[in-house]
Amino acid sequence: MHLIHTVWPYLAVMLLAAGLFPAMERRFGWKVFSVLPPIVLTYLLVTALAVSRLWQVNEAIHTAQSMLVARLVPALLFLLMINCDLRAIWALGPRVLGVFACTSISLFVAFIVTFLIYRHWLPGDNWQPLAALSGSWVGGTANMIAVKQAIGMSDAHLAMSLLTDALCYSMWVVVLFSVARLAPAFNRWTKAESSGDIPLAVAKPTGPVTSDSVLLWLGMALLAAALSGWLATKLPESSMIGATTWTILLATGAGLVLAHTPVARLPGASKISGALLISVVAVLASQSNFQGIAAAPLYLLCGVTIIAIHAVLLVGFAKLFRFDLYLCGISSLAHIGGVAATPILAASYSAALVPVGILLALLGYILGTGFGLVVASVLSALATP
Q1: What's the confidence (pLDDT) of residue 351?
Q2: Transmembrane stretches, by residue range (predicted)?
């Protein structure tokens, strides 16, 4: 039975959940927070509340969820860019491309090996949902649909791909948020320099954070998000770049431009971006839906196996090529999550890495359909008696 049916109580729960664990960490400093950071606990708590059906996902609440994500994510990215140094990010170039290539290779191997493990339970054309999923796990849902159309996959099979994508992605996001605290030990093991040490603060904020500076930054961020969304509707769209992607790019660009002006010295941007980040995570978690999980246990098992193999191989590549944990995590989610989720993870690692996450996710969109079709051809050949 649903207790919440309207938007305002839903928003109140989101804000309370977003503030609860950061406040507890600040007040008590319990050791649990060194294993599960507040942002992960927030994600888990709100997911549990969503699954328990505390609120009814009616038209009003669904509209509120969509609007909050559509407006708060660009506003968050705008604020995160205020203290970024593009020159330091540019210096990461070869490492970023290297970790992206290794992530793609690890996923390719993972899909093939997983199919070989389970192919006796996937007869006929039941390999097709994995092929479509591979397009999504390098690019996004648009790439999945493109692969589906190219290989003539049925709508019933598409449902399996979508369900596996959503559930395994949700699980993997929690893992990637959680491993952030392991970065120093991981980087010592791989002998890598942390990409999170990119220098910030092109323009040092002056003075303490005041109520007026908070209101000014919040107003600028929401205005940048609104203008970016409006301009996005005027720009050409394709199967790879739609209005959402344009909005994110425009808001990011606006923040980078403003970062090199005297306005960037106004204090408060980092404080507001931190609050928005955990609020966005709460709203994203509130959309969790595990209905239909019993309909596709084998494909869910395949999805978990693919991610496990991918993770092991990527750790091996990190050791071999001295990649740091942050770049590995961002590259992995850029493949599996896409352009909307990756900058959120990158921001939880280091605000300086947000542009890296966006660029890798866009590169995944470009390559996703081709990757999916290559996987489809290999799986088809392996499935042939």
Answers
A1: 76
A2: 7-24, 36-56, 68-90, 96-118, 157-179, 214-233, 239-260, 272-290, 296-318, 325-346, 358-383
Distance CA 250, CA 339 (A): 13
- 3-class DSSP state of 228: helix
Strand (E) or helix (H) holding 24: helix 7-28
User: Is residue 133 pLDDT above 90, yes or no?
Assistant: yes
Q: What are 316-359's pLDDT values in tens digits?
A: 999 999 998 999 999 999 999 877 678 888 888 887 788 888 88
What is the Cα–Cα distance from 264 to 74, expressed in whole angstroms?
A: 17
Pair of tokens at residue 350: 């280091």
**What's the pLDDT at 41?**
83
As a whole number of angstroms, the distance between CA 271 and CA 283 comes to: 19
The SS3 of residue 382 is helix
Identify the architecture of domain 7-383 in CATH: Up-down Bundle (1.20)
Compute φ and ψ for 235, nearest 5 degrees: -95, 155
Domain ranges of the chain: 7-383
